[in-house]
Amino acid sequence: MPYTIPTAPAASRPPSLLRREIQDRLAALARTHRVPGAQLALDTGTDVIAVHTGTADVTTGSPFTDDTAVPLGSLTKPCTAALVMLLADDGDLDLDEPAAAHLPELGAVPEVTVRHLLSHTGGLPTGPDSDTAATTTAPRYLAAVCTARDALFPPGTDFSYSNAGYVAAGRLVETVTGMPWHEAVRALLLEPLGVTPAFIGDPAPGRHTATGHAVNARTGQIRPALQNLAPLEAPAGALLASARDLVAFGNALIGRGDLLPPAVAKEMRRPETAARPGTLADGWSPGLALYERDERVWCGHDGNAQGTSCHLRADAESGVVVAFTGNAGGATALWRDLTEELGRLTGVRVPAGTPTADRGRPVALPECAGTYRNGTTTYRIAPGPDGSPALSVDGDLPLPLVCYADLSCDLVDPGTGCLEPGGRFHRDPATGRIERVQISGRTARRTDPD
């Protein structure tokens, strides 16, 4: 049964008043979190509420509108996954065949399947940063990154979030369709949804777009952020869209409309048993994150480009779809607060993400100290000044870790002292030695000697 608007907490309010209340809360939270502009769209299956607030670019003062397209970051990935799933449904490829059957550049990892690419279970590294990726081609990038030497675990046995996997998925689309990824996603997905395509580096003529923003923590000054994405990474993060656009896609993911056949939408939502994404979500499927709340499982994804934060949630059981975009880093916290406000105002309880769990008392875990690698990224865990472990990534300022008996860990925010979900450690089942660490969904393999 779909939710209806208004629901019990708002039973006496007409829809127009409820919309105004949601609009007011969005505007107030944007001010609180220093987010220049934001959008929210809520489709209950019977009613649609769409609101927006603020400015798209603090330099020009251009207003956020209902149609403003925002850099989505990783929320591009479900769109690329949907293309691959459609090709599989047409018989052009098989989800469980080796990806190397179509992409020779993956010949060094012949056991990685198409399904592994979409569900981040192939054991592939994250990949080099965008500046490095900008100097090469996609085939060379994949051949350099997807090697047996850099494999994080045997394919299909665990989870590690990988941009490289979606560069490969985009290459699959291009190889099978004969179209550049931009053209394929435009013709096969966005235009059938009624969405005007826009991409980083290729904004649609006449489509209003938002700029990401960074906030100086010391001065409070807000400034525009430059989008930095290598062209070959487009299938992993190049799309721009509005909250309304995302709702249209979310409806397709739960089988509403004609874009995705019901069997394809259902397969995209089916959990992969090996995918344990840790702090990113409660589960993962081919292309989608899965979030649990109140005994419901929602599908969706989060995306962060430079200075933006975007979120999509869809519940196939109730038919509810919620999408949010914001053009500053603080929009992630805004989204979390806004989901609670939606629950209070409408009764629709949307999972914002995976919260920090109560894992009991912290424990000492001195054996976690060591060096771990994910491709070119180095994770160093060493005792801090008080003897507790601290994590440094590529030599950055170490962040204190709080470890628990189940081998999970939290990070301590240096500014607030609050705990943030960190990840988990893995032991080698044969030796009992800690051999891997997963931080924010990315797994790194231990490299220091016994």
Explain the overall architecture:
The chain has 450 residues and is of the alpha+beta class. The chain has helices at 15-32, 77-89, 114-119, 130-133, 138-145, 163-177, 181-190, 234-237, 243-253, 262-269, 331-346, and strands at residues 37-43, 48-57, 62-63, 70-71, 212-215, 222-225, 240-241, 283-284, 289-293, 296-303, 309-315, 320-326, 370-374, 377-383, 389-393, 399-403, 408-412, 419-427, 434-439, 442-446. The protein has an eight-stranded antiparallel β-sheet with strand order 3-2-1-12-11-10-9-8, with helices on both faces. The protein has an eight-stranded antiparallel beta barrel with strand order 13-14-15-16-17-18-19-20. Strand 17 and strand 18 form a beta hairpin. Helix 1 (15-32) packs antiparallel against helix 11 and helix 2 crosses helix 7 (181-190). The longest helix has 18 residues, at 15-32. The chain is globular, with a radius of gyration of 22 Å. It starts with 14 loop residues before the first helix and ends with a strand. Residues 4-12 have low confidence and may be disordered.
Topology:
Elements: H1 15-32, E1 37-43, E2 48-57, E3 62-63, E4 70-71, H2 77-89, H3 114-119, H4 130-133, H5 138-145, H6 163-177, H7 181-190, E5 212-215, E6 222-225, H8 234-237, E7 240-241, H9 243-253, H10 262-269, E8 283-284, E9 289-293, E10 296-303, E11 309-315, E12 320-326, H11 331-346, E13 370-374, E14 377-383, E15 389-393, E16 399-403, E17 408-412, E18 419-427, E19 434-439, E20 442-446
Antiparallel strand pairs: 1-2, 1-12, 2-3, 4-7, 5-6, 8-9, 9-10, 10-11, 11-12, 13-14, 13-20, 14-15, 15-16, 16-17, 17-18, 18-19, 19-20
Helix pairs in contact: 1-11, 2-6, 2-7, 5-6
